[in-house]
From TrEMBL:
InterPro entries: SusD-like_N, SusD_RagB_dom, TPR-like_helical_dom_sf
PROSITE patterns hit by this protein: PROKAR_LIPOPROTEIN (PS51257)
Family: Belongs to the SusD family.
Domain RagB/SusD: 329-446
Organism: Dyadobacter endophyticus
Chain ranges of the SusD-like N-terminal domain: 20-216
Keywords: Cell outer membrane, Membrane, Signal
Cell compartments where the protein resides: Cell outer membrane
Protein's UniProt name: SusD family protein
Taxonomy, superkingdom: Bacteria
Pfam family name, one: SusD-like_3
SUPFAM superfamilies linked: TPR-like (SSF48452)
Length: 447
């Protein structure tokens, strides 16, 4: 981690919307000093990207031999769940989140000394949110799935809580990792008050939404329901897909400023060659799962001349993949929590409130369930169909594979060989890049 946390402030802040560096005479030596300076640190959009290899390793997309051959080494290895993903190189999925952590820590340490006020409160809230989001993304890829019974004894991730880069930080326990994420989010929800025009700056609703996502991954359904409800009370808007143009090249706006009304926090995954349209195809069973009148099939997908189905429905509004937070996910999180807590009627109410916005007008028939178990199965099925290509499917596979009713075995065939990813496999936890292990001495994940 030391290697990737020591970089010039100039490099870290390149690309800021209103970078204070543009007016400094000696940019190589500059450090942030004002509220605007620290805001510029957090507005470095690309340093906030989320991990993306989990999307390649999941079951939403597949590839022909020719598509596979066009990818970079790490993408091919992730796709086949290989032992060695990096061949001695680093990984953006590890490095970029820790850049976000460094930026957040820099703001907490520096801006905390400035005069108090609402703007400083928001800025500090943003910093806590970004750190929590980065830690959560790292935990979903480089730490095992959360189980309450073993979380204290399992390894999580290094929790870098200061900008000091000369001190090696060991891996925290999985329990401490998640507790730190939640502590940061509670701070974010308390401090953030103002709504920003730019949705890459999180709102209080986004902080509660991320809290609900984390609590769902932990199996804490009572807390997840409360957090989801707090988020929806602040911002519960849903897009009516009847108002979209299903023939459009891209279904949603492509700007953090003009993002659709469901977006609570705008973010993207790290870019890989895989993400460009010719290099992947949508898994056919997923594409076929949308029923008659379901507008998601047209708004999420399109077909090339050769019959290849590709994804065009990213809430990033581009061929980059959205990894932020949106109200549709929050509705589904609360619906699942209600179902798991035995409240069938409320689970169905949330699920149907979402789905009526996804079907052609006059076509949708509200889903019914006689038991909470039936409602839960409906919610889980809709999570896969609604939250396509957001990096959430990998997290869902990890947690659901711990439950007998939802275990899924993934299979791929490549060059005549079948590759299998069984439920509970250690390959659901990515190896830490070997250069990081050799530099810091932290313990590697089993593979």
């Amino acid at each position: 981690m030391k290697k990737y946390l020591i970089w010039p402030i100039l490099a870290m802040l390149s690309g800021c919307q209103d970078s204070f560096l543009d007016v400094k005479p000696d940019k190589a030596l500059v450090v942030p000093r004002t509220l605007a300076d620290y805001q510029a640190v957090l507005d470095n959009f690309d340093s906030m990207n989320s991990p993306g290899l989990n999307l390649i390793a999941g079951d939403e997309f597949t590839a022909s031999f020719q598509q596979f051959q066009s990818w970079e080494y790490v993408e091919r290895q992730a796709y086949l769940w290989a032992d060695d993903l990096y061949s001695g190189a680093g990984s953006a999925d590890w490095d970029v989140p820790y850049k976000a952590v460094f930026a957040a820590n820099l703001v907490m340490e520096g801006a905390g000394k400035l005069s108090p006020g609402p703007e400083l409160s928001n800025l500090m809230g943003y910093a806590y949110f970004y750190r929590a989001n980065a830690f959560y993304g790292l935990a979903q890829q480089f730490a095992p799935p959360y189980e309450a019974a073993s979380a204290r004894s399992q390894l999580g991730i290094p929790l870098k809580l200061t900008t000091e880069v000369t001190k090696t930080v060991p891996r925290a326990s999985l329990l401490d990792t998640y507790q730190q994420i939640l502590a940061d989010l509670r701070q974010a929800a308390e401090l953030i008050t103002a709504e920003s025009v730019w949705k890459n700056r999180p709102s209080r609703a986004a902080a509660y939404a991320l809290m609900a996502r984390v609590q769902l991954a932990m199996g804490d359904y009572e807390s997840a329901e409360k957090s989801a409800s707090a988020s929806l009370a602040l911002s519960g808007k849903l897009v009516d897909f009847n108002d979209l143009d299903p023939a459009a090249k891209l279904s949603f706006p492509n700007s953090p400023k003009d993002a659709n009304q469901e977006v609570l926090y705008y973010n993207r995954m790290n870019f890989y060659l895989f993400f460009f349209t010719p290099y992947y195809q949508v898994d056919y069973s997923l594409y076929a799962s949308y029923g008659s009148g379901d507008l998601r099939k047209q708004c999420y997908f399109d077909t090339l001349a050769d019959g290849t189905v590709f994804y065009k429905g990213s809430y990033a509004g581009s061929f980059g993949f959205f990894s932020g937070l949106a109200t549709d996910e929050v509705y589904l999180t609360r619906a699942e929590s209600y179902a798991r807590l035995g409240n069938t009627s409320l689970a169905l109410s949330d699920l149907n409130a979402l789905l009526v916005k996804r079907f052609k007008n006059g076509v949708f028939k509200p889903l019914v369930a006689a038991t909470a178990e039936q409602a839960l199965r409906l919610v889980i099925a809709e999570r896969k169909k609604e939250l396509v290509a957001r990096g959430l499917r990998w997290a869902d596979l990890r947690r659901l594979n711990m439950q007998e009713a939802f275990k899924t075995t993934l299979r791929r065939r490549h060059e005549g060989k079948e590759y299998v990813l069984a439920p509970g496999s250690p390959r659901y936890t990515f190896p830490i890049p070997s250069n990081e292990v050799s530099t810091s001495g932290i313990q590697q994940n089993p593979r």
